[in-house]
Each structure stands twice: as structure tokens, then as C-alpha cells.
Design brief:
Blueprint (H helix, E strand, L loop, with lengths): L3 H11 L9 H9 L4 H11 L10 H7 L18 E2 L27 E7 L13 E8 L18 H7 L3 H10 L7 H11 L12 E2 L5 H17 L1 H7 L9 E2 L1 H12 L4 E5 L2 E12 L6 E4 L14 E2 L27 E9 L2 E6 L5 E2 L7 E5 L6 E5 L2 E6 L2 E4 L9 E3 L2 E3 L6 E3 L18 E9 L1
Helix pairs in contact: 1-2, 2-4, 9-10
């Protein structure tokens, strides 16, 4: 059977009784619609027969007189016309033995797609009975990956793009289930699209018929949300008796067994120390990302970093224990001094605001530094060390550096204390990439730091 494109002229010539004027792009697009492939193939097989008199399919005839917006801009005001290329002979990614030329219908080099999820607890994000989306990532079939593949499409207006395509339901879902732990969802979405979405070959602009806007961006987020919605990680784990707990720990084999039974193949599990935080589901794709079929598969490399036992799956939104000292009195250090590895999470006016990074400064948009706490031999408290070196109060500021002598700290009701006080200060709450020194002398902002074991 000749390809659909070669039949377009014949179809249009025969359609003169249907419409005085027509839009060839619309007609071809209608015939290529994924849901109409079988009907289109049946029509084309008989339409080219000299002895046959075949009516044009209703859905294609209707498209002959339709008109479609051609708006194009970095923030479109109406949905442009482009639709993904239809793949009549799709191939399964990562399974080819020879090179495939049509990378609009075959994902390469990023042939294994990962739907990745977070369980954020410091701070907590999303519903307390659901994991949240991290991203949709194209890995090469050997476990390596490319990143930031097209700077010209690293858009900084994802929300505006989705609204322009009238994807309000999608946007509302993302604001609940695709969360940034610092509260800046838009920047997180921009990062995921720019770093990963631009590296998916079947989302290239050339893979869209009549591409005029950011159709591929919409497809990226719709596909990721669709995959996430079908996984239901929290429910799968709960059905296996694995629920968030402050006291119960789990084995790697128990977690993997429950998730593998649901997905059909092993998943990648991510931990920060003993804290269970990520799940990666792996797929090969038959055809393109927008229109193809995601087929579960095994990970493309050994990636799980959780310990075999003692894995902690802690609840979200645990209350922070307040300091209970009486004004005018000297607080009494309580509880077990911090031991092992952890983060120092910052709270001001009862609200979580970032954490300490390795130099000992307060930051709200970066990755928390891992601190190591070691008990002092005389039982008077503990020392703290980051990758920069031992920590102490130097010239009135919390500082971690290689030349320091380790200072002695204590904890009061779970908060870091120095000289029997849990109150530290800064000139302002950090914003963006600005860091703030943590001071012991009174300043504009009072802040406490709470230990999060990892």
C-alpha cells in the first residue's frame, strides 16, 4: 500500500464535492491521527483501486474545511497546530540491532525512559499519602545520559505554555503532584524540561506536522503525568504492609519485591543514607513518546543505593518539636546529642526555610550539606563536621572550615544549641542564590536548626 502522504493529492481531487476549499495539512493530519490509523489504512487500500468507489471517511472529510490557528511565540496565546508524526511501523527502543534513521519514531540515543518519583520529608511536599513526580528522563541504553540538549528550547515559562494550550487541569494536577521542595514549582518544571525533555529525540520540533509553538512541551508533561498516575506507588507499598513510620524500618528486598510485583520489572530505589526518598521506573518505548507505548523493563544499569536493611520510610509533615525554655531561665539540654550523619534544616517563625550548606551558611535554594555529629568524650555535647571541615562559632558566626578547631554543641528539644541557646540569627532570610551568615548575636531574623538524620 502506498504511504498516506502519496495518496493526499488523489484524496483532495476526489474531495471537490465535499468542500470548495480545503486544508491539505488538516486532511493529512486527520488520516494520521493515532486513533484512526486502522480506518485510514482500510480506506487507502480500497481508495486506490480503479474498480472501487469509496467514500472519504467522515472524520477526514470534516477536516477538509477546518481551520487551525497558526499562532507562534515564546508564550503562545492560542494552541498552535502541530501534531506528532504518526509512526506506522514503530520500533521498540533499546532493542534494535541496526541503526534506525527515523528518530521521530524511535527514541535514540535516549532509548530508556525513566519516570522518577520523590518522597520528600524535609521539607515535605505533596499529599501525605502520595509520592510526587521528579521527572521523565531519557537514558541511553547503557545507563549513561545526555542533558540540556537544546538551549534554544530551555523555556522559562512552562506555566504560560500550558495555559496557552488550555491545559488547566494538567497544570492543577502538577501543582499538587509535581512539587519543588523549596516551593518554586515553575523553576523545577523548567529545569526538568530543559535538562531532560530537550534530549528526547521524538519530542524534537521536526517530529511534529505543522509545528508552530511548544507542542512538545505539553506532550512531555502530559506523558509524565499520565505515567505517574498509573503507578500509585504509595498504594502499592501500603498493600504490601509498607507504610511510613517513625519506628519501623524495612529491608531493600521487601521494598523491591512489592514494587517489582506491580511494575513487572525491578525498579531503582534511592536513599539518602537510610532514608527512602526516590523510586525510578524504567521503560522502553514502542514508537514516539507522544503517541507510542511505554513498556516496562529492567534498569539499564545498577543504580539503587539503599542499604539492605534498616531503611526508614518516614511520614510527611511530622511536627517540629518546639523549644520549651522559660523566658529568663537557662535552658537545659535534653535528648540524645546528634549522632551520625544528618542535615541541619532551618526554621524561622515556625516555617521551614532551607538548610545549612557545607561552609555553615544558610541557603534556601541549594542542596543541604551532610554534617557528621560525634559525641564528645566527656558527655558535654557533640561536634559537627561538614565536607569543608570542623564547625565552630568563629567571630560570632557558625563556620565550617579546614583550619577550625571543632566547637561543642548541644541539642534542646531537637534543635541545635550553642551556649545553651537554640536561637541563631541572620541579617535576612536567604533568597535565590544569596547565602546568609548564621550568627549568635541578635539580628533581623531569628532562626533555629533541626537535625534530620540521614
Amino acid at each position: 500500500m502506498p504511504p498516506l502522504t502519496s495518496l493526499l493529492l488523489l484524496l483532495l481531487l476526489s474531495a471537490s464535492s465535499v468542500a470548495a476549499s480545503c486544508n491539505a495539512d488538516n486532511c493529512l493530519r486527520a488520516l494520521r491521527a493515532p486513533t484512526k490509523i486502522a480506518e485510514a489504512q482500510s480506506f487507502c487500500a480500497t481508495f486506490t483501486s480503479a474498480s472501487a468507489s469509496v467514500a472519504i471517511p467522515t472524520f477526514a472529510a470534516a477536516a477538509l474545511t477546518s481551520t487551525i490557528s497558526s499562532s507562534s511565540s515564546s508564550a503562545p496565546t492560542s494552541a498552535p497546530t502541530g501534531t506528532p508524526k504518526v509512526c506506522l511501523n514503530p520500533q521498540l527502543s533499546c532493542q534494535n540491532t541496526t541503526a534506525v534513521e527515523d528518530l521521530c519514531c524511535f527514541n535514540s540515543p535516549g532509548g530508556q525512559l525513566l519516570l522518577t518519583e520523590f518522597w520528600d520529608t524535609a521539607p515535605s511536599t505533596g499529599p501525605n499519602n502520595s509520592w510526587t513526580i521528579h521527572g521523565l528522563w531519557p537514558d541511553k541504553c547503557d545507563g549513561t545520559y545526555e542533558a540540556n540538549c537544546d538551549a534554544s528550547r530551555e523555556y522559562t515559562n512552562i506555566t504560560a505554555i500550558l495555559k496557552a494550550y488550555s491545559k488547566t487541569d494538567l497544570l492543577e494536577y502538577m501543582t499538587t503532584y509535581w512539587k519543588d521542595y523549596q516551593g518554586d514549582d515553575e523553576t523545577f518544571w523548567e529545569h526538568e524540561w530543559g535538562k531532560h525533555g530537550t534530549c528526547i529525540s521524538t519530542l524534537d520540533t521536526e517530529c511534529y506536522e505543522g509545528h508552530r509553538g511548544q507542542e512538545e512541551v505539553v506532550d512531555y508533561f502530559e506523558v509524565a503525568v499520565g505515567l505517574f498516575g498509573g503507578l500509585r506507588s504509595f498504594e502499592v507499598l501500603a498493600a504490601a504492609g509498607i507504610l511510613p513510620s517513625t519506628t519501623t524500618t524495612y529491608t531493600l528486598s521487601a521494598l523491591q519485591s512489592a514494587l517489582t510485583a506491580s511494575h513487572g520489572f525491578p525498579v531503582t530505589l534511592g536513599c539518602s543514607g537510610t532514608l527512602f526518598e526516590e523510586i525510578w521506573y524504567h521503560y522502553n518505548v514502542l514508537g514516539s513518546v507522544p503517541t507510542g507505548t511505554f513498556i516496562p523493563t529492567s534498569p539499564d544499569g545498577s543504580k539503587s543505593d539503599c542499604p539492605e536493611t534498616g531503611i526508614r520510610y518516614v511520614p510527611k509533615y511530622l511536627p517540629v518539636s518546639p523549644t520549651t525554655s522559660v523566658p529568663g531561665s537557662t535552658p537545659t539540654p535534653t535528648g540524645t546529642p546528634y549522632v551520625g550523619k544528618g542535615f541541619l534544616q532551618a526554621y524561622t517563625s515556625g516555617t521551614h526555610k532551607g538548610c545549612l550548606i557545607s561552609a555553615g551558611t544558610w541557603y534556601t535554594t541549594g542542596t543541604c550539606a551532610t554534617y557528621t555529629a560525634v559525641n564528645v568524650a566527656d558527655g558535654s555535647g557533640f561536634t559537627l563536621t561538614s565536607s569543608k571541615g570542623p564547625c565552630d562559632i568563629i567571630a560570632g558566626a557558625f563556620t565550617c572550615a579546614a583550619g577550625n578547631t571543632a566547637g561543642v554543641f548541644t541539642s534542646i528539644d531537637g534543635s541545635l544549641a550553642y551556649a545553651n541557646s537554640t536561637s541563631f540569627y541572620a541579617a535576612a532570610i536567604p533568597v535565590g542564590t544569596v547565602q546568609q551568615k548564621v550568627l549568635t548575636a541578635v539580628d533581623a531574623v531569628e532562626v533555629e536548626f533541626v537535625w534530620q538524620i540521614i
